[in-house]
Amino acid sequence: MRRISARTRGLQWLERGLGGVQKSFKKMAAKDLYHTTVKTALQKDGWTITHDPLYLKHEGLKMAIDLGAEQVIAASKDAEQIAVEIKSFATTSVLYAYHESLGQFRTYRRILKKKEPERTLFLAVPVEVYDEFFKQPFGIEAIEEEDLKLLVFNPITQEIITWIK
Asked: Taking the model in full, what pTM does it have?
């Protein structure tokens, strides 16, 4: 009898498209890919990782800002402190991924303002997502109107391309 690993079973479920299993497995795979990439890019840029992930407590709720494909990394460079929400946008709908990202970004930013006001929250996105979405008119408006801070990274070279502050 041949044993099948959990990863192989997950891939089989993903291929069959079994609803929530597909979504959660896809998010797990994306997290594994970009978490290390962004962490490495920050370290290459001279940042020290201080929390991986950054846990917060708010009004009796414990929050681990670690949501499958997304991982918050807290880092510091000189006197500047940041928190980074990593988003893969690995979905068939970039607009859906944006809506999900925006909701999380707003929540995390609100809590950080209360708990760690010295930290600035950045949304880390792959350069392809930045070019294809955030550099387009709707994306440009979103950055301005939502006061989004972006960290744009290259997933291949594991480097930060630009910071949008």
From this structure: 0.75
